[in-house]
Design a protein that fits this description.
Helix content: 25-40%
Radius of gyration: 17 Å
Distance between the termini: 52 Å
Number of helices: 3
Shape: extended
Order of helices and strands: HEHEH
Structural class: alpha+beta
Length: 110
């Protein structure tokens, strides 16, 4: 069983699978991650489900999600998804609506 770990590991291209995702996705990236590069994370925002990317400063690959500053990101993102679902139910396109971003970004600036 251990022999496989002595061989060079090949990269796996998962973009085709990523592009098939049709639900909202939040990507939390540790700013110091060496596993998920900034370039890959940014590409995840441009294709497939066009994920929302939030970088956690002074953090390696996996944020602990044990501090309020990190869990609030998830909570606010989930609340935003609920708000968008309500808008869609009311016949409003949430991507065209003028509103504040709960993650603190200014959506009105280009």
């Amino acid at each position: 069983i251990g022999d496989v770990f002595h061989e060079e590991q090949k990269d796996v291209d998962l973009w085709a699978l990523w592009d098939m995702i049709e639900i909202p996705v939040l990507v939390l990236r540790g700013a110091d991650s060496t596993l998920l590069t900034r370039e890959t994370a940014e590409e995840m925002t441009r294709r497939g489900p066009k994920a929302t990317l939030v970088e956690i400063p002074q953090c390696g690959h996996a944020p602990s999600l044990m501090v309020d500053s990190q869990t609030h990101i998830i909570r606010n993102w989930l609340l935003e998804q609920m708000r968008k679902d309500e808008m869609r139910a009311d016949g409003i396109d949430p991507d065209l609506a003028d509103h504040d971003d709960p993650l603190g970004r200014n959506l009105n600036e280009k």
